[in-house]
Amino acid sequence: MGRVEGKVAFVTGAARGQGRSHAVRLAEEGADIIAVDVCHDIDTIGYAMAAPDDLDETARLIEKTGRGAVIAQADVRESAQLRTALDSGLAEFGTLDIVVAQAGVAGMRGQPPLQAWCDVMNTNLVGTINAIQVALPHLREGSSIIATGSTAALMDVSQKDNPGADPGGIAYLYSKRLLSEYVHVLATELAPLGIRANVIHPTNTNTPMLQSEPMYRSFRPDLENPTRADAEPVFGVQQAMKVPYIEPEDISNAVLWLASDEARYVTGMQLRVDAGGYLKWYDYRK
Fold it and tell me: Which molecular function GO terms apply here (predicted)?
């Protein structure tokens, strides 16, 4: 049997990148998947969002494992859309055991800047809360909630001398920080019910968000039109290990563990999958 055999997972941001990887990994280990994604661009975000065909491909990959997939185009900023999508999945599968609140955007250099701030906050923070809270009435003892934070949320950026020091970029950092606090408090409230809630903090991850022009410009502000080749050597500043980034599968393995009964007593955790990035900021006593 798989490590999440017979369970049902609700995954946001599932059309590509980390979200697709998490959905497929959980399916490989026995879970049926309710997969949602916005599947259209956001004007202030300087890279393309996933398309409907991407979400269809996620469904194909899930079904290839032998598990069921219910997909829906839904914007995490709108709780009603998420509730409709979740209800469709529940009608098919009957129960819900795992929530993976993965959907997120990076608004570095987004225009207009204050709208970029709003779009990032509404997606990363409000969207995470929406995904979790539409699921809460359906969760039972043994369920697991997993939210995607970022090692950026753990960094001291008081000098704002970091990649993305503009409203859209700073919103990314603070949205991840605030969602981490939300999940921490929620975990305290859910613990007596036997429901767990944790946050995973990835470092740079090899997805379309990282491999995008706004991110290249954030890491190489000294160049007018930086390329991937220009930016990749600088990506390594985020990690202590000698890598520019990690792969989505590295995060998916942590998601699987937190979703499984192997982590049945793990809750309120801020789990870093960061190639040692945190070590560059703090000592072990913090």
Answer: oxidoreductase activity
pLDDT at 158 over 70: no
Question: What does pTM read for this prediction?
Answer: 0.95
* Spatial distance between the Cα atoms of 92 and 33, rounded to a whole number of angstroms: 10
Residue with tokens 């990835």: 202
CA-CA-CA-CA torsion sign (153, 232, 110, 122): negative
Task: Quote the CA–CA distance of 176 and 155 in Å, as a whole number.
Answer: 11
152 φ, ψ to 5°? -60, -30
Contact 4, 259 (CB under 8 A): yes
Q: Which two tokens stand for residue 285?
A: 């006593």
CB 168 within 8 A of CB 107: yes
Tokens, residue 262: 């192997």
Cis (ω within 30 of 0) for the bond into 221? no
* Residue 174 annotated to the active site: no
Q: What does the block give as tokens for 145?
A: 């909630």
In one letter, which amino acid is 138? H
Backbone phi, psi, residue 270, to 5°: -105, 90
The mean predicted confidence, pLDDT, of the chain is 94
Which one of the listed residues 172, 216, 245, 278 is annotated catalytic?
172
List the domains of the chain with CATH numbers. Answer: 8-207+247-274 (3.40.50.720)
What burial class does residue 11 get, using C-beta atoms within 10 Å of its C-beta: 0-12 exposed, 13-18 middle, 19+ buried?
buried
